[in-house]
Amino acid sequence: MEKTAQQSELMLLTVLLKHDQSKNLEDIQSHMKKVGWWDRFPVEGTRVVSWTVAMGLGQIVTLELPPSLLPLVNVELERSAWGVFRTECYPTYDFVPVRERIRERVKNGGQ
Prior knowledge:
alpha+beta, 38% helix, DUF3303 domain-containing protein
């Protein structure tokens, strides 16, 4: 499937929300409620591609967004995630189409 011009102007951002293990679930949920986490994140204009819980690690959120919203996502993480999560952010991309091209090339004798 080809991307439209509008889709090609979007990026993926994978956010690791690592649990602060010095806090229990009640403390975490209380903080998230106090800062309005569920209303504030993800920010308007972004789309949640996936949101996974990894036991012992925390949550892994992949967002699709225009690059212009990256500073807003950053500020919102600082504003509402810090205090219960350590955050790591990684610009990412969908490797499936690339993998398929490589697979086809190798199948046809290339590298």
